[in-house]
Specification:
The complex is a heterodimer.
Chain A lengths: L3 E14 L2 E7 L1 H6 L5 E4 L10 E9 L4 E7 L3 H7 L6 E8 L10 E6 L5 H8 L4 E7 L6 H5 L3 E6 L6 E2 L2 H8 L5 E5 L2 H13 L3 E5 L15 E3 L11 E3 L6 E3 L6
Parallel strand pairs in A: 7-8, 7-11, 8-9, 9-10, 11-12
Antiparallel strand pairs in A: 1-2, 1-6, 2-5, 3-4, 3-6, 4-5, 12-15, 13-14
Chain B lengths: L7 E3 L2 E3 L3 E3 L21 E3 L16 E4 L2 E4 L8 H13 L4 E6 L4 H11 L6 E5 L10 H4 L2 H14 L4 E4 L7 H10 L4 E4 L3 E4 L1 E2 L4 E2 L5 E5 L4 H12 L6 E4 L5 H10 L3 E4 L2 H4 L3 H15 L14
Parallel strand pairs in B: 3-16, 4-7, 7-8, 8-9, 9-10, 10-15, 15-16
Antiparallel strand pairs in B: 1-2, 5-6, 6-14, 11-14, 12-13
Helix pairs in contact in B: 2-4, 4-5, 5-6, 6-7, 7-9
The chains are: A alpha/beta, B alpha/beta.
Chain lengths: ~250, ~300
Amino acid sequence: MSKTKKSALVLSVDTLGEGITQIWLSCKEVASEAVAGQFINAYCNDNTRILPRPISICEIDKEEGKLRIVFRVVGSGTDEFSKLKEGDSIDIMGPLGNGFTLKDEPAIIMGGGIGIPPMLEVAKQLTCEKTIVLGYRDSLFLKDEFEKYGKVVVSTEDGSFGTKGNVIDAIKENDVKGKVIYACGPKPMLKGIKAYALENNIEAQISMEERMACGIGACLACVCKSSQVDAHSNVNNKRVCKDGPVFYAQEVEL
Amino acid sequence: MNTPDLKVNLAGVTLNNPVMTASGTFGSGEEYSEFVDLNRLGAVVTKGVANIPWKGNDTPRIAEVTSGMLNAVGLQNPGIDVFAKRDIPFLKKFDTKIIVNVCGKSEQDYVEVVERLADEPVDMLEINISCPNVKEGGIAFGQDPSAAAAITRAVKKVAKQPVIMKLSPNVTDIALMAKAVEEAGADCVSLINTLTGMKIDINKRAFVLANKTGGMSGPAIKPIAVRMVYQVANAVKIPIIGMGGISNASDAIEFIMAGATAVSVGTANFVNPYATIEIVDGITKFMKDNGIKSLDEIRGCVK
């Protein structure tokens, strides 16, 4: 699998909710190689912001050579991206990291907060029995799109929609069953999922995030703690960008 | 006119061109080999390696600042045994020079790694006495001229390859440090390492980096680095590897005109994975456009 850094054409920019931006990019070199769960590095046009922003791929359209990214505006870089217009261009590098290993077994697809977008491509590609569990703080986004691909169960922290609480509360309340969990979300959620998977003796593939610089495994900025001594680092650290971002839950310490 | 000659002589080692990678930004070259033909680099300077594996600092290890970044990786490395078995054979496949960056927490640590490398096919050693992100060793040796000289002497006693001492900018007088290591037998100096910095998240009322402080690099530090290379070039006779914010060929040529024999490209690799090769091509074009046959013609040309 090869990576490239290319200029991508912005096809559309939309707001999905408060502070959540969706961009469709045209970049056939990256789209043709991408798999569910991988990410791209997006580079700012303002060159005082030197580092790329790692952003997960929400949807891949290989036929049209398009990629969809959905991100939360959290700083000056993502703010710049949210102000892009149709017809603008943006440098991207990718696809980066290892994606999910999709299996033909009953699936629980779980996304929390801004960890929801990368789960859309998983939901789209998995053709087996599946339940989608989405955890929001309050306002919903992408929920209707997930509904095209399977049964959706929702939790909100404030209880304004679905189960009040988190994704694990939603699983329990709705008696969701499966053999493989695919998940992306904040660390406390992944911790809960790891414990749940262990208790129920099922597999969990979780996507991690960490502040990154290079995005390709060279700079060692984005490490997470690994359960075993890692073959590359020779210490209990794995690189989120290169060895992940998707890990089997038992591989990492949360 | 003839193709310009980009070859440079670094303490007896001939590099095909003056462009190398800055330690810690390029791993041991494997990751960037997907983007860059390593055969076209003057040298690859590896991530720092110690006598035993180091786990580095907690995360977050990185933060962006205006036109630069802070890092506090803390010299995570797999230790010399894994490095020698895996990374040196990988780099040997390419027609480039191998410079191994050596780190340690005590004089004995440095000496152990240097002894271990004595019979390995590496071209030069770069001794890191300037990392601001580790509590012991590292910068402690790089801020005191007599400590820097002592490490230099200890390493020189056992080294079979030419020794580069990597200097910290976090000192009052970098020329004094350069003179101290030159007198102690250093074959070469490289500068600058990162400048100690800090970033605070005002919403969280907390440090952005787990280590609180980090080393600042990137385009924002370049004028400081050029000034320090110029000062050192006027203080010592040994060759200088200049670095600090080099992003393009013009930046690299500035360092050469300030007195550097070779240049290292670090943070720019994160911004543009093709940066090193573009700099080699850009230097070649500058030489052609200006009728320069050898970099000797412009090195230290500003007086």
